[in-house]
Design goal:
Strand content: under 5%
Structural class: mainly alpha
Number of helices: 32
Helix content: over 70%
Number of strands: 0
Shape: globular
Mean pLDDT: 91
Low-confidence stretches: 517-531
Length: 531
Amino acid sequence: MVSGNLARKLALLLHPSLSQSLTAFSNIAELKQVHAHIITSGLAHDIFTNIRLIAFAAISESGDLHYAKSLFDHIEHPTLFMYNSMIRGFSQSNRPHESVKLYTRLLNAQISPDKFTFPFLFRSCSISSLLVPGQQLHAHISKFGIDSDVFVVNNMISMYCSCGELGNAWKLFEENRRIVDVVSWTALVTGYSNSGRVDVARQFFDNMPFRNSVSWNAMIAGYAQRGKIVEARKLFDDMPERSVASWSTMISGYSQCGMCSEALDLFGEMVGFGIRPNEPALVSAVSACAQLRALEQGVWLHGYVEEQRFEVNVTLGTALVDMYGKCGSIDKAFQVFNEMPEKNVLSWNTMIAGLALNGCGKQALTLFWRMQVMGPAPNDITFINVLTGCSHSGLVVEGRHVFYLMTQEFKIIPQLEHYGCMVDLFGRAGLIKEALDFVNDMPVQPHPALWGALVGACRIHGNVELGEELGKHLVELEPHHSGRYALLSNIFAAAKKWDDMAVVRKLFKERWVLKNPGNSVVETRSQVATN
DNA sequence: CTAGGGTTAG
């Protein structure tokens, strides 16, 4: 960096307006360079300079919270502004709990918090559902006399909503009737929607004395997430002004309830109107392609993302990996995955799932080992995906080892899905006895689907006796599941036990027709044949 | 001296 440039950056960092100051650098390396200059030129003891350094590192998008914390820790008596900047920084990090710790430090240093301290503290409590600290902070609000600041109150309302304390949120709202604004109303709409009480949310929405597009979006999202997509669409059509978020809310609503062509149509309409989509809209459209296995449209979207120079962040990158994986373009999936600058556990899981789905069990395992070395800690989903890969590729020894690793090393308690993978792993490999032993050793009640997988394995590998026994058991366990009859019937067919097969079909017909009076016999037959 | 909240994503 030439010195003129350095001076310009320094001047911008120390600009009176903080928002100007936050544009000073495009990355943390530039900040560190200016920081070095600050030290050599004796500015390092100037409080204001330090304030700006910390604020930039903690708050700016191109900042570095870790670096901010180390600057902060080297200051003997940090100012309230420094505390507030750090609390804000941690509230938008992956360790929001740290901001509560900083608040404790602030109190220990005999500093009185102000109205800028609390909104971000409550935000941290919201993200991590920290109800008890949230309640304690609520008590401090009155103690420090800042209980009638609408920003503080609104963040408290959100905090209670996130912790499932709707009654407290509403009480707080009522107590502050004189100061509540459109944000407070919208927070309640969101809170009640997220708790599944979308009808109550609608009442708040209808009673709002003022609305803006965010309030409409909140209500649309509330409906869409409860599957009430018609109501959501009606609001979308009726709203006076749609923001980009309105479009992406509606598109993601369609995508999430499986109405994928509607999602893609609306995305097309949006682009057709000349509206530049945002990342959530792109992610939802890519996800719709994944669900539809629509490779061609997915490729088009990927091209659009590159051509329009959208940043491929973790979420968008993962959505693309998922799309390519589900559409069978595993090389393309791997390419996007490898090019992602930042990956989280979901990105790794998605890539492993793609490999597993495409029968690349060995590669799924290799990626899993690479994840141990250079990736995030695996979670229960990671193991479902790895085990699926093993079972699809007949990697019995490896699968057994991975299961051992999961329970013994990672201390992850196996869910039904994990057991299902193991039964599938043994069953597909024809190791019926191992599968049976495994099911019998399970500490939880086996789900009918597990027996189903076993009976399927018996049929494929000609283990008629066990198949018969388990199949009968399964039919009695789930007398209204048509697939169970089909399986048992197929077992008998494989053993050429035509009489037994006829009995099963008759039994099925009676029970099925009884429960589904609208079905004709022809349909019933086709059900048996195809299931 | 500076500053903040409610909507949308894999």
